[in-house]
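Feature request, filed as a ticket because there's no other form

It would be nice if the structure record came with a short human-readable summary line next to the C-alpha cells. Right now we just get the raw output. Example of a typical job, pasted below so the devs can see what we mean:
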Amino acid sequence: MKTLSETWFAEGYIDFELKKYTLLAYLQEINNGFRENKLYPQLADIIFHFNNMVSFRDNKKLLKDQFPKRLTGLQVEKLTLLYQQVIEDDELMKELEDIIHYATNKMKKTIGDGAEIYEFVEEKIVIVPVGLVPLDNTEGYFFLNNGKGKDTLVYQYRLTIFEKHDEKYRGIKTDFIDSWYRSITSTYEHIKLDLIRKKSDLPNPAVYAIETSLRFPVEETLLPVAKRYLVKFISAAA
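Raw output as currently delivered:
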C-alpha cells in the first residue's frame, strides 16, 4: 500500500491544490481497501497521519509522545524545524493551515468509514472459552474460524501491559501455530488436547474459540479485530 510521508503536508512546495490532489489519491487507495473490507494497515495508517497533522497544528510536543514506535528522533526534529519555519511566514502559515484543515476533515470522514467496518466486524465475532479457563489467562491459544467453514487457524497469544501517558494498557502478542480442519473427530476440545501434548511449555493453557458468521480478509481485518476483541473479552472477565 502506498502511503504518505510523515511530513507530506509541509514538504516541498506548499500549495493547497497540489497537496489536495496528493491527499485525494491517498484517500482513494484507502477507500479501495475499505470497499474490500480490508482495514489494516489502511486504518492505522490514516489515523497516524490524522493525529500527525493535528499535533503539528497544535504544536503539542509534536508526535513524540503519541507515536514513539513509528517516528524517529530525527523525524520529530524535522517536524519541529518545519513548524519554526512556517510560523515565521504568515502567508505560508495560512496556506498550511488551509491544507491541514481540509485534510483533517477529509481524513476524519474516511476514518469514520473505517470505524464503521471495524464495529461491524466486531459485532459478528463470538468468543467462547474451550474447556475450563485457568486463573492465569494471560497466555494461551485462540482458534480463529472465518465464516462457516471448518478450517480453524490456531494462534498462541500472550497479553502484555504497557504504559502510555501515565496509564496502563493491555496489548497482545500472537504467533501462528497451525491450521486444523474441524470435524466430528477433531473438535475444539481435541485440538486443545493435541496442543497440550505437543507443546509442553503450556501444560494448562487458556483457550478461546473466536468465530464469525461472515467471511472477512484474515490478515487485513479479521485477525487484528479479533485480537483486540479478545483483549477486551479477557480484561472484562478479570
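Something like this underneath would help us a lot:
The radius of gyration is 22 Å.
Residues 216 and 222 are 6 Å apart (CA to CA).
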